[in-house]
Design brief:
With 642 residues, the chain is α/β, with parallel strands linked by helices. Helices cover 34% and strands 21% of the residues. The chain has a 7-stranded mixed β-sheet with strand order 13-12-14-15-17-16-24, with helices on both faces.
């Protein structure tokens, strides 16, 4: 979905900005500036699909939005249990927002487990829509309810709507030749229709989506569309919902352009394809499926028409080995993985450092160690990316800050890899990968020129006048070695993991040569041209909050809250983590206090302390979920007052 828009602080609570009372007994329409909705149910209830469709229609309507999918690691966790709850949170507004929101205004709970798992996040007065058909005695006991919360008064502080979603869906589909079990599967579409009515969401896109998704099963498509329409009609006719809500498009939140809703992994995949086109190189992905990186493999496999070749290897080591071979052969080579896969790929990354070939290593971080939390988010692979190889093997590291920014980060990673002939780490995470936001589709003339020149002939003259090719003769500005495609006449050269002689590339065990090569490889990384870090400090603050990666949204939202309350605080965010921007030391030195929020135990803070001797204060969280803006605002207020 795309929409055209033209170019306030993120608020803590939704605000009623107007109310319209319709004539003739029609239902009231209340205008809001923002809403946070969470769909929650069993992992087989289709909550991710429901949330995704609501998001797509919201994007097409023109709201700013941010999402937070949250699902179990198991493919099908035990039905009706707390570990099996899957949820999708969407924050949409008529102004610029940065996070999926701290607390939902609306919870759609498909069963008792979904209610119990999420009720603690709801503020008093929030709306709760429950599927009463699932609140059976057995289902209640399974999650520890001694009595039904729908009847014991425990939900009196909320606006509770009891709706028999399952039976209403079955009734709506009785004309279709479906079993009861098949009909019940469409209850998520009934819920989507109801919420679409409540918030005046467009419906055409969802109906077209269902027709396409079930094109080979037209009776299933028709049934889902019927359930969707029945949910809409239920909202329109029932007395249970006396008010519907409007959230106007975010007409002033964005620069002029064509926008679409995009997730981090999709943006990253598009960025890789774009980088290959801008470099005029074929794109090769050598990968092994792993959560939450697999979507990149899935997406790139669809784009053979752009010269993309995807290879699903038998394991992580084979995946990166094939990618490095493709780099040797002249492709823009990529391998995608998560933290456990990086551990397996580390030897080949070291080989890429030694060979000095361009290779993109995309790490979609998740909770660890080991298998850890496959479907939860974390940013605890920074030190692994920096140092997780034997020997002195420096690698550039960059990190996107929002889902849409994954596109630009992919282009930047490709620029560094191709210009400096080095493997590059791109550190995204599960929050960015699965979350989504509006993204402006760039014009072609905004994209960087990434074309490279392959070596085509001799580049060195010996003392006797003979012209030869030296594979490790370096560019004096970038220290990059020439990229010679195999099969080019006269450019035969040896590669491998054993140390090379400077210039000739011959095997060398000479101590002085090894010292020189180690220092040269480090100097190449240290010399990479990266932009200076920009500081947002309108009031001359004494406290700086420094972040990296996906903490950008929560940090910025927290900073906005503090400034709205009259506090003075500065903010800076790192994209380049190795090498750091050249002005970072000077920036840090201007502030009395530096606070570094991270979803780890202080990895960036450790690097900052070691390199700049700055007393950086860590604020850490490792619970598998992103920071909440309110939580960060409180921590930063303490730092300001300290």
């Amino acid at each position: 979905m795309t929409s055209q828009v033209s170019s306030p602080a993120e608020q803590a609570d939704g605000t009623v900005v107007g109310e319209q009372r319709k004539p003739g007994g029609a239902k009231d329409v209340r205008r809001l500036d923002r809403v946070i909705i969470r769909f929650a149910g069993d992992s087989g209830d289709g909550m991710q699909l429901t949330g995704d469709r609501f998001t797509s229609e919201t994007a097409s309507f023109g709201n700013d939005l941010s999402t937070l999918p949250n699902f179990p690691a198991e493919i099908r966790a035990p039905a009706g249990t707390l570990p099996g709850v899957s949820s999708f949170q969407l924050h949409f507004a008529d102004h610029d927002i940065l996070t999926p929101g701290d607390a939902p205004n609306v919870l759609v709970a498909m069963n008792p487990a979904a209610l119990k798992a999420n009720i603690g996040d709801l503020p008093r007065g929030a709306e709760i829509i429950v599927n009463t058909d699932e609140f059976t005695k057995r289902a209640l006991q399974k999650v520890g309810y001694a009595a039904s919360p729908l009847e014991d008064g425990s939900l009196d502080g909320y606006s509770l709507h009891t709706v028999p979603l399952t039976s209403l869906t079955v009734e709506a589909l009785k004309e279709f030749d479906l079993s009861r079990k098949e009909a019940e599967r469409s209850k998520n579409m009934f819920a989507l229709g109801l919420l679409s009515w409540m918030y005046h969401r467009p419906t055409e896109g969802t109906e077209k989506f269902l027709q396409t998704k079930f094109a080979k099963k037209p009776h299933i498509a028709a049934a889902n569309i019927a359930a969707f329409r029945a949910g809409w009609n239920f909202g329109e006719t029932t007395e249970e919902f006396a008010v519907s809500y409007e959230v106007a498009p975010a007409a002033k939140a964005f620069p002029v352009g064509t926008y679409r809703n995009i997730s981090g992994n999709l943006a990253l995949a598009y960025g890789l394809v774009t980088a290959s086109r801008q470099a005029d190189l074929p794109l090769f992905l050598g990968s092994y499926p792993i959560t939450p990186a697999s979507d990149i493999l899935h997406e790139l496999s669809k784009h053979k028409n752009f010269g993309v070749r995807t290879f699903q290897a038998e394991d992580e080591i084979a995946g990166i080995g094939a990618a490095l071979g493709a780099a040797f052969g002249g492709s823009l080579a990529v391998t995608t993985t998560s933290g456990p896969g990086v551990a397996l790929k580390s030897e080949t990354i070291g080989l890429a450092v030694s060979l000095e070939l361009p290779l993109l290593v995309v790490d979609i971080q998740r909770g660890g160690p080991s298998t850890g939390l496959p479907t939860k988010t974390e940013q605890a692979d920074l030190l692994q990316a920096m140092f997780g190889r034997n020997g002195e093997a420096p690698v550039p590291v960059i990190a996107p800050q929002t889902p849409g920014d994954c596109f630009d980060a992919a282009l930047e990673a490709a620029r560094i890899a191709l210009t400096y002939r080095t493997p590059v780490f791109l550190l995204s995470d599960g929050y960015l990968a699965n979350g989504s936001e509006p993204w402006r589709i760039p014009d072609l003339d905004e994209l960087p020129d990434l074309r490279v020149q392959f070596a085509s002939g001799p580049n060195h003259t010996l003392e006797d006048g003979t012209e030869v090719f030296w594979p490790y003769k370096r560019d004096p500005q970038t220290l990059a070695r020439p990229w010679a495609v195999p099969g080019t006449p006269g450019l035969e050269h040896r590669i491998g993991g054993i140390e090379k002689q400077d210039g000739t590339g011959n095997i060398s065990y000479d101590p002085a040569n090894h010292d020189f090569m180690v220092r040269t490889r480090q100097a190449k990384i240290d010399g990479i041209a990266v932009p200076d870090i920009e500081v947002d400090d309108p009031h001359g603050a004494k406290t700086l909050v420094l972040g990296w990666g996906s903490t950008y949204g929560p940090i910025t939202a927290a900073v906005r809250r503090l400034r709205a309350a009259g506090e003075s605080i500065a903010q800076a965010h790192l994209r380049h983590l190795n090498p750091f921007p050249r002005n970072l030391g000077a920036v840090l030195g201007r502030y009395d206090r530096v606070v570094v929020p991270e979803m780890n135990l202080g990895q960036l803070a450790t690097l900052i302390r070691a390199k700049y001797l700055v007393d950086a204060h860590s604020y850490n969280q490792v619970n598998g979920m992103p920071f909440k803006a309110e939580q960060l605002a409180a921590a930063l207020k303490e730092a300001i007052d300290d």
